[in-house]
Design goal:
Layout: H1 4-37, H2 39-46, H3 54-68, H4 75-94
């Protein structure tokens, strides 16, 4: 089971990745159009020999822009979130206030730590069970 924080974060990372792809496509298209408009002044300086392959150059520049914009997707955020969950599980398992009759709590799923304080409704009968 996934927590609500993890589900929201996954959705946001997907949006960031899609926007990164749009930015990279725009930048590579803009680069190719600009180079072709200024071809006469660039050939002597940069030694462009083959500017006839628009699609091949577009794919190469798209790869270049993807490498430049790779820091858009926050991979360190995912690692940090997992480390926080791990340390929260350690704290929960060592908390003496959660012990009952010398039985320690066992954390079996560190993904659900965020859900602990989010109980909205408690259903019980007259005896309180």
């Amino acid at each position: 089971k996934r927590s609500t924080v993890e589900a929201k974060m996954s959705k946001q990372v997907l949006y960031i990745f899609l926007s990164q792809c749009v930015y990279c496509l725009f930048a590579s298209l803009y680069y190719n159009i600009w180079v072709r408009q200024h071809e006469d002044s660039l050939t002597n300086y940069l030694h462009f020999d083959d500017l006839n392959h628009f699609i091949a150059d577009l794919i190469i520049r798209l790869g270049n822009w993807i490498l430049i914009f790779t820091n858009f997707v926050p991979i360190s955020l995912l690692v940090t979130l997992e480390l926080v969950r791990f340390f929260q599980a350690i704290v929960i398992s060592r908390d003496k206030k959660m012990w009952t009759d010398d039985i320690k709590p066992v954390v079996q799923s560190s993904n659900l730590n965020e859900e602990i304080g989010q109980v909205e409704y408690v259903f019980s009968d007259k005896t309180g069970t």
